[in-house]
Amino acid sequence: MIGDVKYASAKTEPEPTVYRPILQVQDSDAYSSNVEIRTTGDAASLAPMGRAAIMQVDPKLPVFEVTTLREQLAGALQREKLVAELVSFLDC
Amino acid sequence: MKLQEEDVGFNRDNVLLIGIDPRLGGYKPTELSALYRQVLDRLKEVPGVQSATIATFSPISGTGRSSTVTVRGYTPRPDENMDVDDLLVGPDYGVTLGVPLLLGREIDIRDTPANQKIAVVNQSFARHFFTEKIPLAVAFTLAKRTILSAAKSSRLSA
């Protein structure tokens, strides 16, 4: 059992969640698009080397998006704040 | 507004997310585990990488997949929605995202098709389905998978 993680948004309470081992599943459920890397220093500065390492395994594997978890969270919080402001504005 | 301090359940610092598309890359489902192993092994050799994993969905991405669950020993209410979030993750998931391990073990490199099928659940799952005590082993099955949503995460190139 691991702690609760929010996937939908920062405001949505976590749902009961099942984690299955991706290396154990051999059907189309195992198509994954997210490589997640914990870095010893600044995550963003490791992006070029991380991308290059993946390209070394297979140069034809499409690598389509690079961001940091902090950026992803900040973007989501910003959108949620905007929605909250809009709702309170409409309530006036 | 206290949004910034919101508890999200993971450590947001020093995590890089890279999107890949093995489907578009021509991989068959049976070839994925070999690809993922190679990618993770290669990444771990990169200076500055502490740990690496792979997951079908990333936190706060607005995306997810749910499956209907049947838990042995749990009798659902007549109209109870038995959908749970269903993620597939690689070894070192908790360590990489900073999600605490509360009981048992994490998914690791031993979890291959040759070995027993296992799953890890979150605290919400345990609270909901195991009302008295948390069993060390629990049998459940997943069926009827549905994609919840597919909002695109922010695109920020580094």
Summarize the structure in words.
The complex is a heterodimer of chains A (92) and B (158). With 92 residues, chain A is an alpha+beta fold. Chain A is 37% helix and 18% strand. The termini of chain A are far apart. Chain B has 158 residues and is α+β, with helices and mostly antiparallel strands. Chain B contains three helices and six strands; from the N terminus they run βαβββαβαβ. Chain B has a three-stranded antiparallel beta sheet with strand order 4-3-6, with no helix packed on it. Classes of the chains: A alpha+beta (92), B alpha+beta (158). β2 (34-39) of chain A pairs antiparallel with β2 (49-55) of chain B.
Instruction: Give the topology string of chain A: H per helix, E per strand.
Output: EEHEH
Helix count of chain B, per DSSP?
Answer: 3
The separation of the N and C termini of chain A measures: 45 Å
Strand order of the largest sheet of chain B: 4-3-6
Question: Sheet with the most strands of chain A?
Answer: none
Instruction: Quote the distance from N terminus to C terminus of chain B.
Output: 29 Å
Spans of chain B of 5+ residues with little confidence (pLDDT < 50)? 144-158
How would you concisely characterize the structure shown here?
The complex is a heterodimer of chains A (92) and B (158). Chain A is of the alpha+beta class.
Blueprint of the fold:
The complex is a heterodimer of chains A (92) and B (158).
Chain A: E1 17-21, E2 34-39, H1 47-57, E3 63-68, H2 69-91
Chain B: E1 15-20, H1 32-44, E2 49-55, E3 63-71, E4 83-89, H2 93-97, E5 120-121, H3 123-129, E6 140-150
Antiparallel strand pairs in B: 3-4, 3-6
Key features?
heterodimer; A: 92 residues; alpha+beta; 37% helix; 18% strand; B: 158 residues; three-stranded antiparallel sheet; 6 strands; globular; disordered C terminus
